[in-house]
Design goal:
single chain; 10 helices; about 0% strand; Tetracycline Repressor, domain 2; mainly alpha
Length: about 200
């Protein structure tokens, strides 16, 4: 029951807003008593924290699945962006923006987890791209990782509309890729951008 509550509550938090969804709303949606929810979660903040942890795990399980498919480094990044779009496409507001505004302590906890794991993904992707000849071999990997995650996390924390988040993230990805790419990498980037235009038509 605990995991069913986390799953339903998180779905509602993401869709309707962390602030607006109450424990009564969750209980009514699940046709259970509020007492049942409090049996597992002392308060709403703990439930939100558990929910963000579950979202974090789902995101990184999906990223690991994408990485295991062995796309080239640039294609891989576009597949990861596509995954985020599909996962959060039905939501009007950015979940990260909502968390930071209404539950800053939970937001900070979430960001600490994300930064550690996302940095590892960014670092691995750049090393892969260098090996494939898509990224320049004289890149300062640590600085590039820092620049990129600063861009991505700033977009999510300061942009309310999820649609605008997606648009800015794709622009950031293009910016990041052009900064790293060899001529071979630019060709692959243009290929991925063209595919993206086709999807958006």
């Amino acid at each position: 029951m605990k995991y069913k509550i986390i799953e339903k509550a998180t779905e509602m938090f993401l869709k309707l807003g962390f602030k607006s969804v109450t424990m009564d709303d969750i209980a009514n949606e699940m046709c259970i008593s509020k007492k049942t929810i409090y049996k597992y979660f002392e308060n709403k903040e703990i439930l939100i924290s558990e929910g963000t942890r579950a979202v974090h795990e789902k995101i990184h399980d999906t990223i690991n699945t994408i990485v295991s498919k062995n796309f080239n480094a640039i294609h891989e990044n576009f597949e990861i962006r596509k995954m985020f779009r599909e996962m959060f496409n039905s939501f009007d507001n950015s979940p990260v923006y909502q968390l930071k505004k209404h539950y800053p302590e939970i937001h900070n906890e979430f960001i600490c987890r994300e930064v550690d794991e996302c940095n590892a993904v960014f670092r691995q992707n750049i090393a892969k791209g260098i090996k494939e000849g898509l990224y320049r071999d004289n890149i300062d990997i640590e600085s590039s990782v820092r620049f990129y995650y600063t861009l991505i996390f700033n977009i999510n924390e300061t942009t309310k509309s999820e649609k605008e988040v997606f648009e800015l993230e794709y622009q950031a990805l293009e910016y990041h890729t052009r900064a790293l790419a060899t001529p071979k990498g630019i060709k692959e980037l243009e290929k991925q951008l063209e595919k993206q235009l086709e999807v958006n038509k």
